[in-house]
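Field reference: sequence -> structure
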Amino acid sequence: MSISDKPQHSQSSPTKSMATGTLTGTVMILGSGKTYPLTANGFYRYDQRVHLSGDDPEGIEDTFQIEISFNTPEPASGTYKVGPSEEINCSYSLWPSEKWFHAIEGQLNLKNFASVRHLEGELIFTTVAFGDIPQYKVDIVFSITGN
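Structure field:
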């Protein structure tokens, strides 16, 4: 799969979300060292995924999206490794071009308050290096409540 292919496990986010949340952090282009602030205005949680989206911080595309995929609908609170063969998979994507940058390594410190459908966490991951395609480092703190 090339870095720009849409992963098989992903689907478009629902058009309406019952979830609310916050996201703060940065995305860095590793080749240039340029760092951009990230904030989100779209929060989606369904099945075993969380999608966080906002305006593209580089100003090239319309929006960015961070997808976090769990191996269970209600992951336990704890610290997880992130990557293709780990319990947690992540990606950073740009829209409308549908360029996907998949996590090669990282870590998620997660708190799950399942009884009130609330997740919060600190997530850091680096995307796969692939030819001329930018390699990113994503570093965020997020909170999401609801579906």
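Note: The beta strands are 20-29, 35-39, 42-46, 49-55, 63-69, 78-82, 89-95, 99-113, 118-127, 136-145.
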